[in-house]
Amino acid sequence: MTDTTSQAARSIDFESDAARARIKARYRAERRFRFYGLAAIGITTLFLIVVLSDIVAKGLPAFTQYVLVMKVDVDASLVDPKDARNPADIRATGDFDALVRNALRAQFPEVNARSERRQLDSILSTGAADALRERVTSDPALIGQTVTVPVLLSSDADLYFKGIGTQVVRTAGRGTATPSGTSGEIEIASTSGDFAIALARVRQSDAAAPEALNEQMPSLLVAINGGMVKITEIGADRAKGNVYLPLTSAAPAAPGQWQVVTYATPEGNRRLNDRVVTWLESLKERGEIERRFNWRFFTSGDSREPELAGIRGALVGSALTLLVTLVLCLPIGVAGAIYLEEFAPKNRVTEIIEININNLAAVPSIVFGLLGLAVFLNFFGLPRSAPLVGGLVLALLVLPTIIIASRAALKAVPPSIKEAALGVGASHQQAIFHHVLPLAMPGIMTGTIIGMAHALGETAPLLMIGMVAFIVETPLSITDAATVLPVQIFLWSDLPEIGFQARTAAAIMVLLAFLFLMNGTAIILRRRFERRW
Questions:
Q1: pTM, to two decimals
Q2: CATH topology for the 168-263 domain
Q3: Which end of the chain has fewer surrounding CB within 10 Å, N or C?
Q4: Fold of the domain spanning 308-529
Q5: Are strands 219-224 and 259-263 parallel, antiparallel or unpaired?
Q6: Nearest 5°: phi and psi at 141?
Q7: What is the per-residue pLDDT across 337-378, written as a single tens digit (0 to 9) for each?
Q8: Can you say whether residue 178 is alpha, beta or left, with left for phi > 0 and alpha for psi between -120 and 50 degrees?
């Protein structure tokens, strides 16, 4: 037997050309397989980088906000007409919006027409007076004084300063520019043909005559002598236009001291017209525009106005919903896993239960939403759009995952641990709860955290139970109306305002941060407490 085996081993061909070719083919196949694996990982990483980069690029502007820092006269007749200095009356009856509007209008005394005043007021947010109201309410002694407060700008004005909406090109004048006046309709003449480049951008005919501009063409403005002129007709060396911001003088402007400002997007296609843009630029030149971190994004609830919208309500709603989910699914899931793994008899009933648990882990999440709608809302009559119902639905969703993970953690404990406990006189229950369960707890906690991270990102089941409602107030209990972060993202993504696009991406960044944190915690727990047997 040994001789036959030895002869067969000696008869294996390793030296022939065919054998070498087969070995080379196996090596080539292995290299191809490794290349395919690396290519798959590289493509996946590339897609991940592209997606995350796009989200970050769109979301970062939402974490900052431009404000108008200006002096406001706190007029007692508008803030406290009763002259009682009662903070409650001041908050309820004080017309702080009028104070802010008056302070802004005082900076542009040339704006007299009603339509122009409405345009000027559109620079401010509907919550522009919030900071002033809080400050005066907390200190009524400020009434009758002049205070400097940050005033919130509208979303369109905020996006303008962030460079979203139109491309702005500024070209310094190379020659001397001479305006024919300081207000009204004037003409500006240049000694070096400085308007030729701008003329080439907007020219629509081959004629040598000056080109008349309209709202469907790129806007051209001239910043000169502290004022701003909207060009209505342009030639190579001169331009006519209307003064939007009065010039300080009609003296010639030296080279480099004036410039042509081109807005690539036509005025008819922008939310802010050229007159409003002129006022914004004037405020910026005065140093009254500041960029600050947008704390309101984390401290405010939802709003119809992009600059006022925040995720505080959604964060609190998510926390309350996950709290209900954790309180329900963790003890029930672990108890069910212990019973099925250690105490349940191995018969057809338990087999059916195990099969159904595995099947429930693969059921689409919206089915659990339909179950919650039918049972918790329609049958039991629980409050709609409440963290209580959302937690119940998500607990049903996560429960199979926790049971499966807990059973796997219990199986990973060597049988010798339980047998040793039984050998020294411990009961079956004592052996499981005193010895096996503590050793399986790291795996159980890992599975629980991953399941909770899954629940945090779910949207479909919560939409079915009404958590898609517009909720402004922050929920205070599990029975209050609330929404969650994924649903808030869903709501913002469906709104047409450009300002909500950045907030949608920023909310996605916050959600991803929580998911990464939870998954990272699971990895740390597994590595910290995991034992190798």
A1: 0.85
A2: Thrombin, subunit H (2.40.10)
A3: N
A4: MetI-like fold (1.10.3720)
A5: antiparallel
A6: -65, -15
A7: 999 998 888 888 888 998 999 898 888 889 999 999 999 999
A8: beta
